[in-house]
Amino acid sequence: xxxxxxxxxxxxxxxxxxxxxxxxxxxxxxxxxxxxxxxxxxxxxxxxxxxxxxxxxxxxxxxxxxxxxxxxxxxxxxxxxxxxxxxxxxxxxxxxxxxxxxxxxxxxxxxxxxxxxxxxxxxxxxxxxxxxxxxxxxxxxxxxxxxxxxxxxxxxxxxxxxxxxxxxxxxxxxxxxxxxxxxxxxxxxxxxxxxxxxxxxxxxxxxxxxxxxxxxxxxxxxxxxxxxxxxxxxxxxxxxxxxxxxxxxxxxxxxxxxx
Length: 259
Prior knowledge:
alpha+beta; Alpha-Beta Plaits; disordered C terminus; five-stranded antiparallel β-sheet; two-stranded antiparallel sheet; 259 residues
């Protein structure tokens, strides 16, 4: 009963992926969407999925520190690929998740990092750009603006209903959307900071498509409670730049303070 109640308001993308026999469009992936490059990092994006996305300010993490974390991650993945393990995909996923947590913990510490997102005028600009595309390219599920990075959960299934008959050439993918959000917010934020022409956001971003219900609630919970984890607020609702769509608040779901 509880699962059925939750399904009634969950992103449409879950319905599509769970009922692939009924919705046959999603397994089709345009070659342009299969491998995308944001300067350095290749991204595989599932059409119409829900994504958990993290991006940080330029200079929020030293290049050498980031490089060391990436080398550690890649070495562990390399070992897994060479071993005859039954569930390599699961092991690699766990390594990537550990890499993200290590990276995000570093960002939360804000050591020698810019903290532009603590400036109300700058935070308001970023929030405006996130909300600008809500209902057009995605349904905005949740977001939080930390001092030097942000987490957002976006459901892209809305485009599958807008584009009828469905044409992948008309679909706006995650890379394009992040380019719009980061590009516009960078331009206007730098005007306030007096840094016109300089980098505001880091080059890349981290994204994971939501696989199932547990992953979804884990991603939402992590997003809104990051301010509690970082000891910025005692409850996510006390933070002015943490937001969760009202549908989930009405369900009275368990999004507790970190113990």
